[in-house]
Amino acid sequence: MRTSMSRWTAREAEFLAVTLRLLQQHGYDGLTVEAVAADAKSSKATIYRRWPSKAELVLAAFVEGTRAREAPPHSGSLRSDLLQIGDWFCDQSGQHASTVRAALTEVSRNPALGAALEDAFVHRPKLLVADALVDAADRGDVDSRVIVDEVCDLLPGYLLFRYLFSRRPPTAETVRALVDDVLLRGLTRSPPSL
């Protein structure tokens, strides 16, 4: 179940959608406010009144483009929850991989953009995985000691790597193999004694 609330007017959302599309096509350095204004049939002044800089426009566009929030699945099965999270994350990453690649060049100069990227592609999916693990621990399906950052990072981290840095984008089979052959095997074994 997805929830999504935009804070922008329809016209502002249009500017942001144009910005994302042009960012994907031309990269951050090739994106201009002039091109956004021309494509949206507006003036630069109108855009600059709302977003005083290109960096603020790109940040708003990225946040708007990735604002759909995924609610935790709560299916009653850890495997089903992880598969649903993996499929959702593949959809999100597939839709936004070129945007993320384009924005990565600006992250070192724009900490707010870096934080937005981290929230959308690291923090949110990690919370979903952690929630699924807490549910599984509450049911007695896994030991609560397995709910650690590294485990929660594994599914979204690997899938994002495949989208951004590999020439092999993940598929539903990738998600299934990662869940069945790596995560569930590791999570359902008793952790070693300390």
TrEMBL record:
The keyword Transferase does not apply. One of its GO terms (molecular function) is DNA-binding transcription factor activity. Keywords: DNA-binding, Transcription, Transcription regulation. The keyword Transcription regulation applies. Pfam families: TetR_C_11 (PF16859), TetR_N (PF00440). It comes from the Bacteria. InterPro entries: DNA-bd_HTH_TetR-type_CS (IPR023772), Homeodomain-like_sf (IPR009057), HTH-type_TetR-like_transc_reg (IPR050109), HTH_TetR (IPR001647), Tet_transcr_reg_TetR-rel_C_sf (IPR036271), TetR_C (IPR011075). Residues 32-51 bind DNA. Residues 9-69 form the HTH tetR-type domain. This is TetR family transcriptional regulator. The lineage of its organism: Bacteria, Bacillati, Actinomycetota, Actinomycetes, Mycobacteriales.
